[in-house]
User: Which sequence fits this backbone?
């Protein structure tokens, strides 16, 4: 892992394009370990409404009470020391709508990863998260004019509570597993997307999740809702430096495809070999709707994710394509709940 000197990464030569880091400059640091004080710290910093604060505290209790999973897990999970991670880090700045306004070290990070160039070439919108919060979030005017909402999860719950609250935590219950409960207690960042009825987003929306800091856990929460007859493709990528200590990534992703809607979710995961990547992903497909997961896992110390589709309506469709490469040994799979005339 390379530390970028003087905020300049132009001369760094590394095999892994993501294996570099900048010095921390956090205004908010929750400290090590997870307690009720940690939850309140995050809720205070994010100015959470009361119902979210309550949701977090209930989730923390579930996390503390639930044992480590065993029926689908590996022994390596026993090496996770939850008291050795920091659960929230941010510089206190709101997401910028222009790359020119993004802090220089963050901008250089995403420049190296090619995100601004991809946005210019073919993306309908981009969100770039740096540790716990989005540093950049923007959607093309033509897409926004169609009524499409693409913001980070904090902005979504504050600005669009009537849409957000209806589906938040409904696809994946807090108590689904220990790590979904952990995410529910300390979540920060992730995307909130709503596509109005009949709107077909022609180009992909993309989010990129970057970990910069050591002994840190990233816990984004993504909620995508495609209303009746709508279509959207969402792509996510992720990288982190390789530290001597462990890093934890535990996301929750909920997809809602209403009648006749289509959601395609594409992941390219390239975590460094010290990252525990423990993710819960699930979609609901209503009548004549379709949810597709395309999942590529390249790195991490351990990846465990089970993208699934609940086919709830007639003629609902679900598909999961998962691939991995490298020396890591991710345990990934899917499950589909089926019924008459569903596939």
Assistant:
């Amino acid at each position: 892992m390379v530390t970028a000197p003087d905020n300049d990464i132009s001369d760094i030569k590394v095999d892994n394009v993501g294996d570099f880091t900048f010095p921390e400059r956090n205004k908010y640091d929750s400290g090590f370990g997870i307690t009720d004080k940690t939850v309140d710290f995050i809720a205070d910093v994010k100015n959470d409404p009361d119902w979210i604060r309550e949701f977090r505290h209930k989730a923390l209790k579930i996390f503390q009470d639930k044992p480590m999973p065993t029926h689908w897990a590996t022994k390596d999970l026993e090496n996770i020391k939850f008291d050795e991670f920091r659960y929230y880090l941010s510089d206190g700045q709101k997401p910028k709508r222009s790359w020119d306004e993004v802090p220089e070290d963050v901008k250089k990070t995403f420049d190296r990863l090619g995100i601004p160039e991809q946005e210019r070439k073919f993306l309908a919108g981009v969100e770039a998260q740096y540790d716990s919060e989005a540093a950049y979030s923007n959607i093309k005017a033509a897409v926004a004019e169609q009524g499409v909402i693409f913001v980070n999860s904090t902005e979504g719950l504050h600005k669009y509570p009537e849409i957000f609250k209806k589906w938040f935590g409904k696809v994946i219950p807090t108590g689904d597993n220990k790590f979904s409960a952990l995410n529910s207690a300390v979540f920060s960042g992730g995307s909130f997307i709503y596509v109005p009825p009949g709107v077909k987003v022609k180009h992909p929306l993309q989010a990129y999740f970057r970990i910069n800091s050591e002994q840190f856990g990233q816990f984004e929460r993504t909620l995508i809702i495609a209303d009746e007859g709508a279509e959207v493709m969402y792509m996510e990528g992720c990288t982190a430096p390789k530290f001597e200590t462990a890093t934890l990534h535990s996301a929750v992703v909920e997809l809602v495809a209403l009648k006749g809607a289509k959601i395609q979710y594409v992941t390219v995961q390239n975590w460094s070999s010290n990252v525990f990547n423990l993710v819960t992903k699930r979609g609901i497909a209503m009548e004549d709707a379709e949810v597709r997961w395309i999942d590529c896992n390249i790195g991490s110390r351990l990846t465990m994710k089970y993208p699934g589709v609940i086919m709830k309506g007639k003629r609902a469709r679900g598909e999961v394509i998962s691939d991995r490469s490298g020396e890591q040994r991710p345990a990934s799979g899917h499950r589909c709940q089926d019924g008459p005339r569903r596939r």
User: Anything to note?
Assistant: The helical segments are 36-45, 50-65, 104-112, 115-122, 141-144, 153-159, 161-167, 178-186. The chain has one domain: 2-337. The first helix runs from residue 36 to 45. Residues 4-15, 326-333 have pLDDT under 50 and may be disordered.
